[in-house]
Write a structure and sequence with these properties.
Layout lengths: L22 H14 L1 H8 L21 H19 L7 E4 L4 H11 L4 H7 L1 H11 L4 H10 L5 E7 L3 H16 L3 E11 L4 E2 L11 E17 L14 E9 L10 E4 L4 E7 L16 E5 L3 H5 L6 E8 L7 E3 L8 E2 L15 E6 L11 E4 L5 H10 L3 E2 L25 H10 L3 E12 L9 E10 L5 H8 L3 E3 L1 H13 L4 E2 L1 E2 L9 E4 L5 E3 L3 H8 L18 E2 L6 E4 L3 E2 L1 H6 L1 H4 L8 H7 L6 E4 L6 H12 L15 E5 L2 E3 L15 H8 L1 H10 L7 E3 L1 H28 L17 H22 L3 H23 L1 H5 L5 H21 L4 H11 L21 H24 L7 E8 L2 H7 L2 H11 L1 E6 L8 E7 L1 H8 L3 H9 L3 H8 L4 E5 L2 E5 L4 E7 L3 E5 L3 E6 L4 H22 L8 E6 L3 H8 L8 H8 L1 E6 L9 E5 L5 E8 L2
Parallel strand pairs: 1-2, 6-9, 7-13, 18-27, 26-27, 28-29, 30-31, 38-39
Antiparallel strand pairs: 3-4, 3-17, 5-6, 5-11, 5-16, 7-14, 8-9, 8-10, 11-13, 12-15, 17-19, 20-25, 21-22, 21-24, 23-24, 30-37, 32-35, 33-34, 36-37, 38-41, 40-41
Helix pairs in contact: 1-26, 4-6, 12-13, 19-20, 20-21, 21-23, 21-25, 22-23, 22-25, 22-27, 23-25, 25-26, 27-29, 33-34, 33-35, 34-35
C-alpha cells in the first residue's frame, strides 16, 4: 500500500500556498483518496461493526447545487466521519428525488409550454420521457461538488425514486395503508394551484416562501334581505319580516359569484341598526333609503362608529333567530352548479333569486362583521357548513383558477385574482358596497411555480394520518431534535394540528397511485406489486413502465361484480416518495431486503433544512409510524429517526435571503476555489450554530482561514523545521515519559487529552459549533500562541537531550491528535498533516477517534494555567494603561483573589514562573486583602437607581456617599449594606445604590475582573531600563536576521554602536557589570559581539530607534 508521504518523507513541508491558495493541495488529496480507494477501504474496515444509520435526504438533480447545499452536506459529512472514527459502520447510500412538480415545471420551461392542456397536447408519454431525462441534467455537477467538499456518498448504487423497484416498494406501502383502512378518496376543499392543475397537501403549504405579503381588497358587502325571526326579538315581539342589509365582510370578492348562503354564529348577539342622520361620519356608502344594517353586536362600534352618536340599535337578535332569513343573491350565475358528491342538496336551489342565512359555530367576532359569506367550493369551513345544511354548490371558478362562466363584467377565462376590482365596481354601482379598502396580508402561493393558490373543492386521495396522530405525537417525544425547540415547537405543533394527508396529484410525472376502481360498482382495490398486476391483468408488456401513460392501460376484473377496473388517474405526492426511502431504497419487502431494512431502521441521524419539518421530516415520521405497526415488518417499535439535526438558512453578508433577482447568490465553486473546502466547511460550522441563519461573508471566511488554519499550519511548519534538523523520531526510546517531562509539557499533554474529550462530548450532543470552537481555541490560543511561543528556545538550542526530546514529543503528540480530532471537520488539511506526522498508517479517516488517557489529565495544571492566562490578559491591559512596552521588565505584580483555591494554584512555582516570564516581570506577590497601600476604593452615588428612591434628598445623599471610608465601600462591594445619615435621617444603602471603583496609588496600575484585583508596580530603576533596552535590541537584531534570510540555526557576528550610555551598557557590558551582553548574544545566536567606539558604516549596517531617542546601530555578519 502506498501513501501520500512515505515514512522516509516524515515531517515533509506543507505547500507554501496551503493557507493562501489551498485548492491545489486539496485536489492532490482528492487524487490520493481516489488512488488509494480510501472511502472503499474505510467502509471495508468497518464491515461487521455496530451500525450508525444515516439516511441521505434525496436532492433533485435538475437544478444546480448552491451554497446552502454545501452547508447541509458539510453537517452530514462531519457527523458521519465522526461516527466512523468511533468505530461505527456508516452506510452512505446516495439518493435522487426524481418525481413531482419540480421536475415537471423545469421541463415545461424547457419546452416552452405551460399548464396541463399544453402538456396533453404535447403528449404525456413524450413529456414524461423528457422528465426522466431532465432529472440527470446536473447530476455530474452534484457529484463533483459533493466530492470537492469531501462529502463521501456511495454513488455507485444510489436509490432513484423513478426506478421500477423503488416504485414497486411505494406501491406495497400504499397497499398496506389501504388494507389497514387508512386510505380513502373524497371530495374536499384543498389548497389548489390552477396553473399546475392539482391540489396540494397541507405540509406543502409549510414550505419556505409559500406565504407572501400581498395587498388584497377588504370589502364589506350589503346583502339585501329580510329577517324572519324564528322567535321574538328582544325589543320587537312582532314576527313580521324586517328589511335589512346583512353586512358581510370578505377579502376574496372573486368568490362572491359562488355565494350560496351567509352564516352567523348561533349564540352571538346581532343587531339591526340605523345610521343617525346627524352623524358627522356619514359616508356615501350608507344607503339613502334608511335601510337597517345587520351585524354582530361586538363589531358594531368598530364598523359603524359610536352608538348614540353615529348609529342606534333598532332590533336585537340571537344568531339562531336569524336562521332561515333570506337575502337577494349578489350575482346571476348560470351553469356553475356542481354536484357536491358528499351529500344531496335540498331546500333552496341555485335557480332561486333568494339565498338563506345559516348557523355556523366557526364564525368569529375578532374582525369583520360576524356574518360570513358561504362559497362552499372555495373554503373548507364553508364546505363543512354546506354539507351540514345540505346546500347546493356553485363553482364559478374552475380547476385552472379561471372563471368558467360570465359573471356580470367578468368574462369566462378571467384569472380569479384579476376579477376582484371588476366585481367590486359592479357591486358599488348597485349600491351594495358598504365599505372597501386594501389591506396587506399573508397569502399562499404554489411552492414550485409561484402562482397564487386558491382553496378548491376537488376529488382527491387521502391517508388518514389523523388516525396515527397519537402515535406520531408520542414518537416525536422520543426523537432528539437539535435544536430541541424544533421538536416541541414547529414540528410538535404541526403534529398536534395534523390533518389527513392529500397524497394525490392531478399531474403526470410521478409514482402512479396503485388503486384500480370498478367502472360498474365503484369498488376499489390496491395493487401491491408488479407481479400482482400482471396476474390480474393477464400479462404485461416486457419492460413495462410503471409510469403514465403505460400504467393506465391494464384493466383488471372486479372481484365484486366482475366488471372492469381501471387505474385512478392521479399520481402520488412526491413527498411520499422521499418519505418511503427507508424501505424503497432496498426494494422492501421484496427479495432479501427485509434483513437489510431491519439493520438500517430506524435512522440514527438525519439532517436537512428547517423547511423539511413540513416535508421530508414529516413524511418519514408519518410513514414510519404506520409501517412499524405491521407485525410482519419485523421492525423496531420506534420513530423513523433518533436524532434530527436542523440547519438554518444561508443568507448574504447583510442578512438578506439570496436570490438571482438581487444578484447576491454565492457560487460555491468560486468560494471553494478561492478559500478551499476546509475553510468553507469550518466557517459554516464554527460561525454560528447549524440551526441559526448564517450570514455568509467572504471577509469572515478569509479571517477564519487566516486565524485558525494559518496558526495550525505554522505550528506544524515550526515543528517540522526543527524536527527535521534534529532527525526527531517519535518512537525513540530516549523520549522521557510524560510524568518526567517539565510542567509546561505535562500541561499541553493534559490539554490535548481534554480537548479530545471536549470535542467528542460536543459531537455526541451534536453541537458541531462548540466542537470546532474548542479545537480552534486550543490550536490558536494554547498550542500556537502559548506553548510554541513560550518554548521556542527549547527547540532552538543546539544540544539535544531529554528536555528537547520532551518538547518534540509533546508537540508531536498535540499535532497528531489535532489532526485526528480535526478530520471530521476539515478532511483535507487533517489528511495533509496526518500523512506527514504519521506516514505509513493509511488515511487519517480510517483511524479511530483518540481516546483520552486519564493518567495524563492534570486538572490542577489546567486550572492553574487558565488562571495564569486570565492574569496575563489583565497584566497586558495594565501595561497598556501605564504605557509600558512588553519588552520593558517591571519590578512586581501583586494579585488579590477572593477564591483561596485560585490563590493556591497561582502560588505554585510553575504558575508564578509563567506569569513572570509572560509579562516580563521580576516578582509575583499575592495579597489576601488590600492593605490600602496599593489601591484605594472610590464611591459615587448611582443617581439612576438611588434618585428614584429618595428624590429631593439625592444631592445630600451623594455628598454622604462621597465621604464613605474604605471599610464601608468594601462592605458594599462584597454585597453588604451600609447606613449613612442624610438630612438628619438614616439612609440604608445597598450595593446597587453606590458605584464603587478601584483607583491605583502612585507608581501602581490596577485592574479587576470581578475575581482578581491586580496591581502592577510601574516604577523603573536603571537595571530594569537597561534590560528593557537589551530586549529591544534582541528584537531588532532577530528581525534583521529574517530580512537577511538566515536559517534558524545560522550563527552570526555582531558589531554594535550607540551614543546612549544606557544602550551601550545594556548591549555591551556583561551581567556582572550591570549590562546584558550575554542575553543579547544568546538570543540572537551571536558567537561574537563587539561594541564599537564609533558608528560603523557600509551596506550591512542597520540602525534602529529603541525609544525615547535612543539609537542602536548594528553590523551583522554570518559567522564562518
Amino acid at each position: 500500500m502506498s501513501h501520500a508521504v512515505p515514512p522516509t518523507q516524515r515531517f515533509a513541508p506543507l505547500s507554501e500556498t496551503i493557507t493562501s491558495a489551498p485548492s491545489k493541495a486539496e485536489l492532490e488529496i482528492l487524487a490520493f483518496w481516489e488512488r488509494e480507494k480510501t472511502f472503499e477501504r474505510l467502509q471495508e474496515s468497518r464491515r461487521g461493526k455496530p451500525a450508525f444509520v444515516f439516511w441521505e435526504g434525496p436532492p433533485t438533480a435538475n437544478g444546480r447545487p448552491g451554497i446552502h447545499h454545501v452547508l447541509a452536506r458539510t453537517l452530514k459529512d462531519t457527523v458521519c466521519r465522526f461516527q466512523t472514527m468511533l468505530g461505527h459502520r456508516v452506510e452512505r447510500k446516495a439518493g435522487w428525488d426524481t418525481h413531482g412538480l419540480p421536475v415537471e415545471l423545469e421541463v415545461e420551461k424547457s419546452l416552452g409550454i405551460s399548464g396541463k392542456p399544453q402538456i396533453e397536447k404535447y403528449g404525456v408519454a413524450a413529456f414524461n420521457q423528457k422528465c426522466r431525462e431532465s432529472v440527470w441534467k446536473y447530476r455530474e455537477e452534484w457529484e463533483k461538488l459533493s466530492a470537492r467538499i469531501g462529502y463521501w456518498l456511495d454513488y455507485a448504487d444510489p436509490y432513484v425514486t423513478y426506478e421500477a423497484n423503488y416504485v414497486e416498494s411505494v406501491w406495497y406501502l400504499l397497499a398496506r395503508f389501504h388494507r389497514a383502512g387508512l386510505i380513502y378518496r373524497g371530495k374536499r376543499v384543498l389548497p389548489y394551484c390552477g396553473r399546475c392543475g392539482t391540489g396540494l397537501s397541507s405540509h406543502e403549504l409549510g414550505q419556505p416562501g409559500v406565504y407572501r405579503d400581498v395587498m388584497d381588497p377588504s370589502v364589506i358587502v350589503r346583502c339585501r334581505g329580510w329577517i324572519r325571526p324564528q322567535a321574538s326579538s328582544v325589543d320587537q315581539p312582532s314576527s313580521d319580516a324586517i328589511a335589512v342589509d346583512f353586512l358581510v365582510w370578505t377579502t376574496t370578492p372573486w368568490t362572491l359569484p359562488s355565494n350560496v348562503a351567509i352564516a352567523v354564529h348561533p349564540d352571538r348577539q346581532y343587531v339591526a341598526a340605523r345610521q343617525l342622520k346627524h352623524s358627522p361620519t356619514q359616508t356615501a356608502t350608507w344607503c339613502e333609503d334608511d335601510r337597517l344594517v345587520c351585524l354582530v353586536k361586538e363589531r358594531a362600534s368598530a364598523v359603524l362608529g359610536v352608538e348614540g352618536e353615529h348609529f342606534e340599535i333598532v332590533h336585537s337578535f340571537v344568531g339562531r333567530q336569524l336562521v332561515e332569513s333570506v337575502y337577494d343573491r349578489l350575482f346571476d350565475v348560470d351553469g356553475a352548479e356542481i354536484e357536491p358528491g358528499a351529500w344531496q342538496p335540498s331546500g333552496h336551489t341555485a335557480a332561486e333569486p333568494a339565498r338563506q342565512v345559516v348557523a355556523a359555530e366557526y364564525v368569529t367576532v375578532d374582525d369583520g362583521t360576524g356574518i360570513v359569506h358561504q362559497a362552499p367550493a372555495y373554503g373548507a369551513d364553508d364546505w363543512a357548513t354546506a354539507q351540514r345544511h345540505k346546500l347546493f354548490v356553485l363553482q364559478a371558478v374552475g380547476a385552472e383558477g379561471k372563471f368558467v362562466v360570465d359573471v356580470g363584467p367578468v368574462k369566462a377565462g378571467t384569472f380569479f385574482k384579476d376579477a376582484d376590482d371588476a366585481l367590486m365596481d359592479d357591486l358599488k354601482a348597485r349600491g351594495l358596497v358598504f365599505k372597501k379598502s386594501r389591506e396587506s396580508h399573508s397569502y399562499p402561493h404554489c411552492w414550485r411555480c409561484n402562482t397564487a393558490l386558491f382553496y378548491f373543492a376537488s376529488p382527491a386521495w387521502y391517508i388518514r394520518t389523523t388516525a396515527l396522530k397519537e402515535r406520531m405525537v408520542a414518537f416525536n417525544k422520543r426523537i432528539r431534535w437539535v435544536p430541541e425547540d424544533v421538536g416541541t415547537g414547529r414540528f410538535g405543533e404541526w403534529l398536534e394540528n395534523n390533518v389527513d394527508w392529500n397524497i394525490s396529484r392531478d399531474r403526470y410525472w410521478g409514482t402512479p397511485l396503485p388503486f384500480w376502481i370498478c367502472d360498474g360498482c365503484d369498488h376499489e382495490t390496491a395493487i401491491e406489486s408488479v407481479d400482482e398486476l400482471a396476474r390480474l391483468a393477464g400479462a404485461l408488456p416486457k419492460d413495462f413502465d410503471l409510469h403514465k401513460p403505460a400504467v393506465d392501460a391494464p384493466r383488471i376484473p372486479c372481484a365484486k361484480c366482475c366488471g372492469s377496473m381501471r387505474r385512478t388517474a392521479p399520481v402520488l405526492d412526491c413527498w411520499f416518495d422521499s418519505g418511503a426511502m427507508p424501505f424503497a431504497q432496498y426494494h422492501w419487502p421484496f427479495g432479501t431486503s427485509r434483513a437489510t431494512v431491519a439493520d438500517q431502521f430506524p435512522a440514527s441521524f438525519i439532517c436537512e433544512g428547517l423547511d423539511q419539518t413540513r416535508g421530508w421530516f414529516y413524511t418519514l415520521h408519518a410513514i414510519g409510524a404506520f409501517v412499524t405497526t405491521l407485525p410482519d415488518a419485523g421492525l423496531a417499535d420506534a420513530p423513523a429517526y433518533g436524532t434530527c439535526l436542523v440547519n438554518g438558512l444561508v443568507l448574504d453578508k447583510d442578512g438578506v435571503k439570496m436570490s438571482k433577482r438581487l444578484g447576491n447568490v454565492v457560487d460555491p465553486w468560486k468560494v471553494i476555489e478561492e478559500h478551499g473546502t476546509d475553510a468553507v466547511r469550518w466557517y459554516l460550522i464554527s460561525s454560528a450554530a447549524p440551526w441559526l441563519p448564517k450570514k455568509f461573508d467572504p471577509e469572515g471566511l478569509a479571517e477564519t482561514r487566516g486565524r485558525f488554519f494559518r496558526a495550525l499550519v505554522n505550528s506544524y511548519q515550526f515543528f517540522r523545521e526543527y524536527a527535521r534538523i534534529d532527525a526527531f523520531d517519535p518512537a525513540a526510546s530516549e523520549i522521557p515519559p510524560v510524568a518526567a517531562r517539565p510542567e509546561i509539557d505535562r500541561w499541553l499533554v493534559s490539554r490535548t487529552q481534554s480537548v479530545c474529550t471536549d470535542v467528542r462530548a460536543a459531537m455526541e450532543r451534536y453541537d458541531l459549533t462548540a466542537a470546532t470552537r474548542a479545537i480552534e481555541s486550543f490550536v490558536v490560543d494554547e498550542l500556537s500562541n502559548w506553548y510554541i511561543r513560550r518554548n521556542r528556545r527549547r527547540f532552538w538550542k543546539g544540544e539535544s537531550g531529554a528536555d528537547k526530546l520532551a518538547a518534540y514529543a509533546t508537540l508531536h503528540d498535540a499535532l497528531t491528535k489535532t489532526a485526528l480530532v480535526l478530520a471530521p471537520f476539515a478532511p483535507f488539511l487533517s489528511e495533509m498533516l496526518w500523512q506527514r506526522l504519521a506516514p505509513g498508517l493509511g488515511s487519517v479517516h480510517v483511524q479511530l477517534f483518540p481516546t483520552p488517557r486519564a493518567e495524563f489529565v492534570d486538572r490542577d495544571l489546567e486550572g492553574g494555567m487558565r488562571l495564569v492566562e486570565r492574569l496575563v490578559v489583565m497584566g497586558r491591559a495594565l501595561r497598556e494603561k501605564a504605557g509600558m512596552r512588553t519588552r520593558q521588565p517591571l519590578r512586581a505584580i501583586h494579585v488579590r483573589a477572593s477564591d483561596s483555591e485560585a490563590l493556591r494554584l497561582l502560588a505554585t512555582p510553575f504558575a508564578a514562573a509563567q506569569v513572570l516570564d509572560e509579562l516580563n516581570i521580576k516578582q509575583v506577590g499575592s495579597l489576601a486583602a488590600d492593605d490600602g497601600k496599593l489601591v484605594k476604593l472610590v464611591g459615587k452615588a448611582n443617581f439612576k437607581v438611588l434618585g428614584k428612591k429618595i428624590g429631593a434628598r439625592m444631592k445630600a445623599a451623594a455628598a454622604a456617599i462621597g465621604g464613605l471610608d474604605a471599610a464601608a465601600l468594601s462592605t458594599l462591594r462584597s454585597g453588604g449594606h451600609v447606613s449613612v445619615e442624610v438630612e438628619g435621617a438614616p439612609l440604608e444603602l445597598v450595593p446597587e445604590d453606590v458605584l464603587v471603583s478601584v483607583e491605583s496609588r502612585a507608581d501602581f496600575a490596577v485592574e479587576t475582573d470581578g475575581h482578581f484585583v491586580v496591581w502592577l508596580d510601574t516604577a523603573l530603576d536603571r537595571e530594569l531600563v537597561r534590560e528593557g533596552l537589551a530586549r529591544e535590541a534582541v528584537n531588532r537584531i532577530n528581525g534583521l536576521r529574517k530580512e537577511r534570510e538566515l536559517e534558524v540555526e545560522d550563527r552570526i557576528r555582531l558589531t554594535l554602536y550607540s551614543a546612549d550610555a544606557d544602550v551601550r551598557a545594556a548591549v555591551g557590558e556583561a551581567r556582572r557589570e550591570g549590562g546584558f551582553r550575554e542575553l543579547v548574544a544568546a538570543e540572537t545566536l551571536a558567537t561574537g559581539l563587539a561594541l564599537a567606539d564609533s558608528e560603523p558604516a557600509g551596506a550591512e549596517v542597520a540602525s534602529w530607534d529603541l525609544g525615547e531617542g535612543r539609537t542602536l546601530v548594528a553590523r551583522l555578519e554570518r559567522a564562518g
